[in-house]
Structure formats: C-alpha cells, structure tokens
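task queued by scheduler; priority normal; single chain, no ligands, no partner chains; default sampling; output format set to structure tokens
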Amino acid sequence: MIDVEHPIVVTGASSGIGRAVAIELASRGAELVLQGRDRQRLEEVLRIVETVGGLGRTHALDLTEDAAVDALASSLGGRGVAALVHSAGMVRLGPVADTDVDVLDAHYRLNVRAPYRLTRALLAELEASAGQVVFVNSGAGQHAHANWSAYAASKFALRALADSLRQEVAGRGIRVTTVYPGRTATPMQRDVHRQEGRAYDPGAFVPPEDVASQIAALLALEPPSTVTELTIRPG
C-alpha cells in the first residue's frame, strides 16, 4: 500500500507526468509536497489533489537554485519521506554542431544536478521511513538519436545516478527505481514536436495517467520487493 503516514515529494508537479503522478497518488490518500516553477499552475494541481482526497502543500521554486532546494529539504526535516519522485526536466533539440555548450549545461543543471542534490538532501528522511526514490527518465536515457545529444546525455547520466544510488542505499532500506516512459502526451512532448517541425497528435502517445498509475503501483509494492527499472511505450 501507499505510505500515507509520510509525505511524498513530487518535482515537476505542475505539468505532464508530475501532475498526473500527484493526482494519482492523492486519489490513494497520499500526503504530497509539490514542486514546480509556475505558482499558479501548482496551486491548480493542489486544488485537484485536495478534491480527490489527498493532502498537499506547494513549493514554487527553481530546482537549479541551491538555496531553494535546501529550503525545500529543510522544510521536511524530522518527518520522514515516503518517496521522492523526480519528474522535473527540460529538453532542447539540435545537432551538436549548432547547439551551444550552455544548452548542455542547462540540461545538466536541471536533469541531473538538481535530482542529485535534492536526493542527497533527503536521504536521511528517506531512510527514516524506508522510502523510495523514483527517477522519471526517458527512452532517450536508453538510446540516443540525432539532434537529442544534450538531452540524451543528461538522461544517460541520470540513469547512472540511479544505478549507483540503488547499490549504495539498498542496505539502508531505500529502494530506487528508474522509469523510462516513451513519448508521452504532455506539454513537453507538444514542445518537442514543435522543435521537430512536426504535427502533434496526443492520441498517438502514452497518456501521462498511465505512467502515473504504474509509478503508484511500484510505490505500493511492499519491501523487500523492488522494481529497479520500468519501461513504458506507446502501443
């Protein structure tokens, strides 16, 4: 069952998969700590969370700002954390020859460094409640394609972070899962299609609610069982 005694932290909760995860977990009675950069959209998600039976609070902050991440972690001190779901991310496409290194750095800061820092800050809280860490990765974290270099590099790095962390914390009762959604019907996917110059048909892709239900299911799995990796693809 989902741990309803301790809060679950969801980053990127104002949109896409993070939003769907927050709503799904709330429907199962979870207490949520919701992070996003857009305060208005985050508050809208909170209202839905409360409507479907969950509890929550919001933290409108930029995960690339260390002081903000530290403040978020400090606000959870002493309570324990049932799970940390990393859903925040960015993607900018382009060939290496035309993509400035600043774009690579931006991917690294949000897609790798931010989850590294927040996970590290919450390890004691996760251990206190035998919690779980879920890294929402991407098919680009398994196979890199032309024009996806900066994003794919960050997602391969995120995969490495999860694999190392899993081995390091297994003896402390913390379970670590990487989820690899294929193309998912989210605002980010719509933006990817814009960058690719292609028409966007959300019906052709994985619904974010399907990803959310699978994440909820793995969070409900009783220890010592764990799902180390989960791949979800459109049919």
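post-processing summary
- The chain has one domain: 8-232.
- Residues 101-128 form the longest helix (28 residues).
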